[in-house]
Amino acid sequence: MPKLLYASTSPYSSKVRMAAVYSGIAIDLVPVKTDDRPADLISANPLGKIPVLVLEDGRSIYDSRAITQHLNRLSKNALFPRNPDKRLDAEVLEALADGICDCALSMVYERRTRPEAMVYQPWLDRQWTKIATALDLINANPPKLPKKITAGHMALRATLGYLALRFSGQWEKGRGRLVRWAARFDEKFPELKASVPG
Known about the structure:
Elements (H helix, E strand, L loop, with lengths): L2 E4 L4 H13 L4 E4 L7 H6 L7 E3 L5 E2 L2 H11 L9 H30 L7 H20 L10 H16 L9 H13 L1 H4 L5
Parallel strand pairs: 1-2
Antiparallel strand pairs: 1-3, 3-4
Helix pairs in contact: 1-3, 1-6, 4-5, 4-6
């Protein structure tokens, strides 16, 4: 069985875990701590980043978007529509959600790795502006939640879960539609809720 090297708080890992559950592909979950730079992680991905899907033949797939594409191929398009326009919409939503996570993680690491006196506030402000702009765009027109969702929907849910974990009370203000969207997602797809970052 393929194994996924992941962390429960990682939004990228969360998206991949949701995608595997949703597409019905069994994977063995192997939690790792990236700060420890464990040998099994470094041998699977020289960047030491998660998630990494290690296939039964020993090949490794990283990053999360490459993994969702792989799972989509295995599941005969369970994660992305066949229609080119709808597929593009799903891919762009996934990229936007991942981009929000990139900015949020940048903020977390800025605070985590520097002494308080050396934290560069203009950098944090710039990242938060990017996050807020993207969230406002999505909040203005949240994606519909049909019976058949895409990896883009899963990426957005993982992103909102990560923001709730790391920036609770900051991202929600003025974005009630996104807050309600996340709650509806969890109601409609309870089997995916356990994969939300936490």
